[in-house]
Specification:
The chain is mainly alpha-helical. It is about 85% helix and about 0% strand. The chain is elongated. The relative contact order is 0.17.
Length: about 140
């Protein structure tokens, strides 16, 4: 179980690193006006999204493996709330993919300030997930 948990945590770090930086790239991309910069951002965003997707996939695989190893955890309230928050992160990740496609097709309509705010949405979710997983308040 400890090996599963360790790999799960490593994957979570990878996933969130990508999800925290991707909207920053979107913010810079939204401010770029020359073709070379825009093309460069498309490549950087795609590569970072791929890394975040690998991290997210491994997070889910090892999280599910831990639940299979100890299914009684599903009865605990803190884990249920944590899983709900993980669902929000998955939705955020999916929306990042939509934004990625919009930039690649030159259909972005959002400002760099909008992306600055979008980037901050993930922080309280991560804080809550960590507190739930470590403190297990209920």
């Amino acid at each position: 179980m400890l090996w599963l948990k360790a790999i799960h945590v490593i994957a979570v770090i990878t996933w969130f690193a990508g999800l925290f930086y991707l909207p920053r790239l979107y913010m810079y991309h939204a401010s770029a006006h020359d073709t070379i910069s825009q093309q460069r951002f498309v490549v950087m965003e795609r590569r970072l999204f791929t890394m975040a997707t690998i991290g997210g996939t491994l997070t889910l695989i090892f999280g599910i493996a831990m639940v299979i190893e100890s299914p009684a955890y599903l009865a605990l309230g803190w884990l249920r709330v944590k899983l709900l928050l993980v669902l929000l992160v998955i939705l955020y990740h999916g929306y990042c993919f939509k934004l990625l496609r919009d930039f690649a097709a030159q259909r972005n309509t959002r400002s760099s300030n909008w992306f600055r705010g979008f980037n901050e949405l993930l922080t309280p979710i991560l804080i809550a997930i960590v507190i739930l997983a470590v403190v297990k308040p209920f």
